[in-house]
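the two lines:
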Amino acid sequence: MPNQFDVFNTKKKTAEKQTVIGMVLIGIAVILFLGMQASGSTGFLIFAIIAGIPGLIFAAKGATDFKKLSRSFKQEVVIPMFQEAIPGVQYRPDYGLSEMEVYNTEMLKRADRFHSEDFISGQLESVQFISSDVRLEERHVEHTKNGTRTYYVTYFLGRVFKFSFNKEFDGYLQVLEGGSPMSRRDFKKVKLESIDFNKKFKTFATSELSAFYVLTPDIMESIMNLEKRNPGRIGLSFTGENLYITINNNKDTFELKMFRQIDQSVVDEFRQDLMVIKDVIVAMKLNNNLFKKAPQN
Amino acid sequence: MFLSVGTTVLIIVVALVLIVVFWYIGVMNRLRQLELKVHEAESGIDVALTKRFDMLTKMLETTKGYAKHESETLEKVVKWRQGIPQNATVKEKEEFMSQLNQVASGINVVVEQYPDLKANTVFLELQSAVANTEEHLQAARRLYNANVTQINTIIVTFPQSIVANAIHMEKKAYFEAEEKKRADVEFKF
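prediction for all of em together
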């Protein structure tokens, strides 16, 4: 493994160098351009172009090479590591959850720009799961004296999980750290007997009894612990036989970072992010007999 | 335009009276709504208890084929053979639940004595269904107690207690579950 890391680190350094050279040249070009504006001399403009074009080429090449490197790292290191951690797991870095699946959570509002990647699917302790990184952006339009400016603001960046949840219950239930359900269902706010849980989460359900049925004292404690272990805003949605979990932690998981050494700690971090799935299954007792899907003949 | 002192005092007094009246109505409505929720939750307990009673009765019928004497003895533990009477109090329902728990743990003992029962698919399905009704009963009990806590808190807190006394609203009884007996009915799969 260390030799494999060396190969990746060498390639990464080349990509980083190209990026740095590109950025420096772009910086020089900007300074020269500002100099031209200040002095009115066209000589500055020629030098700005001479520095700017190679700068853009270097920066673009650096970014492309880094992306390629990141992809091959996922193929050669991450996929085998995932398959070792969870036998039979499928990991597709360039594929993500569909928009429909994400909105089926009924916790996330429709985005103007949607992106999803790092799709993971499999079965752990007889519980089927899928998960993916999701980025949701909202379009903003600003009217200024110079015209109209359009920009996008990210309101969700994190992970969405879907687990099979075979505990029979009527209605729909959501446990949210903030906000309210994105649904037209007749959700009512439910107060559970745990004061700490009510302080941390807002519970919405179409049937109060169902909320108490699903959220047993053990499950409430598990949700509290899950929240402590995963920074960011957590949401749980129980719909039909599915449990959706969203973690809005402003983090793009399973991605290499430029200027960060590739070593065992990176792999360990990826593994930890993967094992959140196991953490949910065990903490929420989804592997309990009552929650498991019956084997299909 | 200036108001006379007398008019000003009158307006203040009327405003204060109105505030008190609206507050009184607000608290009274809140108490009535909570009382309704307590009744709803209590009927949830009735439904869960009835389901549990039906399931256990079916289980006893199944065990009769293996252990007739034991099953008939267990049947006698339950006071209400026809289910829960309409006018039953919370305490009586608690007692009924306790009797059902005794029956459930008795069935567990029978299962240990007659291992053939474990191979009976109908019995196994009923066992799973009984475990499920136990979960529903616990949920109904917790919902009921949560609502009772809410209403009792208002009833004992001053100044809302004045309204509660005025409308003769009394503290509601909790539906207790004895931990020991609850542990007894846990099924092993």
